[in-house]
Specification:
With about 100 residues, the chain is an all-beta fold. The chain is built from no helices and nine strands. It is globular and about 35 Å long. The protein binds iron/sulfur cluster (2 copies). One iron/sulfur cluster binds next to strand 5.
Length: about 100
């Protein structure tokens, strides 16, 4: 069976997130929320996460995004930025 490639977090400008260093996300992976493309892995506080490189989108529950296939993100890469006080996937596009 062919391995499904998951989307990677290319950049994130949410500098106050504990996983963010110089616009690179250092979380092991991220989850994106259900009714809105929010990064659910966003966290404040001290996580002491060593740099790991570009994380994958582990699960994305935004089923009306054209890049979503069975809760996997099939975009070649995603960009995350502020939406108000939270973090959103800007690569979200409505479609099938
Ligand atoms: S907001 Fe999400 S994508 Fe951005 S650094 Fe934090 S965990 Fe990573
Ligand atoms: S591009 Fe679409 S499928 Fe990928 S993480 Fe963003 S909202 Fe989810």
């Amino acid at each position: 069976m062919q391995q499904m490639e998951r989307g990677h977090v290319l950049t994130c400008s949410v500098g106050e997130c504990s996983y963010n260093a110089n616009e690179v996300c250092h979380a092991p992976n991220i989850n994106v929320g259900a009714t809105h493309p929010t990064c659910d892995t966003f966290t404040l506080g001290n996580v002491n996460q060593a740099p790991l490189g570009m994380p994958d989108v582990s699960i994305c529950s935004v089923t009306n995004c054209r890049f979503n296939k069975n809760n996997d993100c099939m975009a070649p890469g995603i960009t995350v930025a502020h939406h108000g006080t939270h973090a959103d996937c800007l690569t979200f596009r409505v479609g099938e």
